[in-house]
Design goal:
The structure is a single chain. The protein contains seven helices and no strands. By secondary structure, it is an all-alpha fold. It starts with a helix and ends in a 13-residue tail after the last helix.
Length: about 130
């Protein structure tokens, strides 16, 4: 998971563009969800318990971040194309691209699509979130 501010700026731009071109509150909400709040899939009962106990970086074996998969991407882009929510789709794409540069995906194996994308990034664009 990237640091939250790395998702806030591109999401705010996408949501602002959606609002400014008259996309309506639904697309603004969709752009906000796909850019920031989609990280809710990082949470599980066990992970929440670990966070409260101070074990921030303990991975959950077998846990998959379902919004960070190819299947979710296909479904999301299909819904966005039917609804005409192009800024929500862009917000999601930027979210996945930011996550894709995080080398911690190679250790956790929780986010399949960003883990696959990591191998295509130049070294200077990769990071370790430290979360």
């Amino acid at each position: 998971m990237a640091r939250p501010q790395w998702h806030v700026v591109p999401t705010a731009i996408c949501a602002g563009l959606a609002y400014s071109v008259g996309g309506g509150w639904q697309e603004v909400a969709a752009a906000s969800f796909t850019g920031i709040f989609l990280d809710v899939d990082h949470l599980s009962i066990r992970r929440i318990k670990n966070l409260f106990e101070g074990r921030w970086k303990e991975y959950i074996p077998g846990w998959i971040d379902y919004f960070h998969t190819w299947q979710a991407t296909i479904i999301l882009f299909a819904v966005c194309s039917v609804m005409g929510w192009w800024y929500a789709a862009l917000s999601y794409a930027l979210h996945i691209l930011v996550d894709g540069a995080n080398s911690e995906n190679l250790v956790s194996h929780e986010a399949p699509l960003p883990e696959w994308l990591f191998h295509f990034y130049p070294k200077r664009l990769t990071y370790q979130s430290g979360l």
